[in-house]
Amino acid sequence: MASLVGGAALGAVFGEVFNVLHDTVKCVGSDALMFKPILKSLQFNLNLLAPVVEEIRQLNKKLDHTEEETKSLKEDMRKARELMGNLGRQEWDYPLQAYYGRQLTELNEAIVMFFQGTLSLKMGRLSCLVPRPPDFTVWLDVPLEVLKTQLLKEKKQQLLLTAPGGCGKTALMKRLGHDQEIKGKFKGNIFFVPVSKTLNLMVIPAGVLLTHIGSSPILLILDDVWSGSEFRLEKFKFDIPKFNILVTSRTTLPEYSFTYDLKPLNDEDAMTLLRHFASLQDGSSHIPDDVIKKVLYQSFSSLGKEYSERLWRVPTALKVIGGLLRKNPVEAWCSIAENWSNSHYIFNSNSDLLDCLRKSLEFSDHEVIFKECFMDLGSFPEDQRIPVAALTDMWAELHKLDDVGNNAIHNLHKIATPNLANLVRKRKDAGEINKYYNEDYVTQHDLLRELAIFESCQGPERQRQRLIMDISGNTLPTPKVEVLVLNFQTKNYSLPEFMDNLKVLIITNYGFFPTELRNFQLLKSLPNLKTIRLEKVSILSLCKAPVLLKSLKKISLFMCKIGQAFQNFTIQVSDALSNLMEINIDYCNDLVELPAVLCDVICLKNLSITNCHQLSALPNGIGKLVNLEVFRLGSCTDLSELPESIRSFYKLCILDLSDCLCIRHLPKDIGELCNLKELHMKGCLNLSKGLPPSTTNLEQLKLVICDEEGLGFSNHDF
């Protein structure tokens, strides 16, 4: 039933199935008294959802969303209808009563989640929440008041904000979305969607939008719309009362009721902004005005007077320049800026700002690796979060960094310090022995991404280290590629052929629904493949055509459908994955039980299963993984216990059970984990009885992270 959640694209057939289910719930309420409370709640939630089903159907018709995209959703609704038909039975044994009670509860929770639109709010790349505004945006005070005045009017509007790239359009939208007066008017109905060069209709969560229709008005912010997308914007001019659209663009677009041109910085604001971004690392911002003025002039003077006066009024340029200066004493700033003024680069006429920003890539010879890593960021789509884990996989092969991620984080800090990217660290208790970076990500301004791509495209194509391109057909033009990053959005996809040298494969599907890889078996022909990372991919085909991946050392599955992947496997997994050392499974919500066949991968050293909320059991055979050093089960909220067989994990250094809400006790012989150094139990709310007595035998234990109030012990107990 859980898959009922998540479909914004609901069509006519869904509407029919919904109506049948709605009527059935009303009818069976009096015949199934033992389920009366949950049925009453379910009927209440269906009543809330019913008024918007027709609007959802009409909207998706307008957006060209197909019925095929909601096949699994409609099937769940039909199953729910069959479930309702069985509730009129008069005799119930306890197992059946528990089973149907659980099914009803799951259905009700799914309806609630759909109605609130929480899926779109939780999934970072599909999120419509307005991102947090930058800390320092003093130059945007006046534009903010102008836009607020317009939006606070009681009427339906279509507003346009224009400015060149890097001038603060997105920052202004973030401030606007968090303004208290704007939030007071629109309540929770403010939706922020980054659009960029390619307007992707699937990023608009239509169902979420319409489920918020009510007495409060709606504000839809479409950020960074490029010229040529005007005809597509017509699809979002809905006939909905109090529906406001605010579009930001680098160019003027026609047919808007109000247009505001964001002006460049004035002299005072430019100096204030550079002073802020260049504040010394000791926190001091007392920098003489004459130094700031000289730096402003000299930093851009190589571009000529016209471009110089224009570009030092661009906030993004000042942010990068300030980030470069703050690493040096103030006394050296003028000479550094003078060196920049003597630099000359050849760019096309539309690359003035890139010319300026290119100065930020002047690393010393022993730091050239940082420039290489910066250019690698251009391999990912615009306005998307870049997982640190994906960068770690790339850089372990491309730049021979450690595959744990410590060096990757160091390099990212070096890139983030001059404001070339933003590194977001999510988890604060990752430990010291083996860092955990699966929740961390990088964001980047689109201009800086353009800079990364521009730098990557220098020189003859056949001599480049990176190729960023659209692939048509199934053949790569460069068969010598070693790292392949595939970004797409489609229901089915075929891997390109002839990649004999491939060592790292990163596949990311940016659509709503998992992609079926048609020729997954092609991977067996890649003798050097070491690392696979799949995001939002269905690997059901794994059992249809078993794949021998003898060189594979690491596989990561994020938001993938893998529940059936290892069923009816016709070959020994120990043969197919004979050298596999690391498995990461994250947000794979159809995983109910870890496949027992994976327990035969005895070379495994790192097993991470996190945020798999349906995972309820681990096979007892997991004890065969005697070489395991890291075992993570964070946020597997339905997991109630660990098998006693884990006592054979003699090499285990890290056990992470963070936010495993249902775990009530640990194996009694956990003390036999003689090499355990870290134990993470924060959020294990049901571990109220503490730990087994054998934990006193954990002599190597150095770090315990827990909720001390709930468990009644602290680190010194060990």
From TrEMBL:
Recorded protein name is RPW8 domain-containing protein
Organism (species): Quercus rubra (Northern red oak)
Please list the GO biological process terms of this entry. Answer: defense response
Q: Which family does it belong to?
A: Belongs to the disease resistance NB-LRR family.
Upper classification of the organism: Eukaryota, Viridiplantae, Streptophyta, Embryophyta, Tracheophyta
Q: Name one Pfam family in it.
A: RPW8
**Record Gene3D superfamilies:** P-loop containing nucleotide triphosphate hydrolases (3.40.50.300), Ribonuclease Inhibitor (3.80.10.10), Winged helix-like DNA-binding domain superfamily/Winged helix DNA-binding domain (1.10.10.10)
What span is annotated as the signal peptide, if there is one?
none
Say if the entry is tagged with keyword Coiled coil.
yes
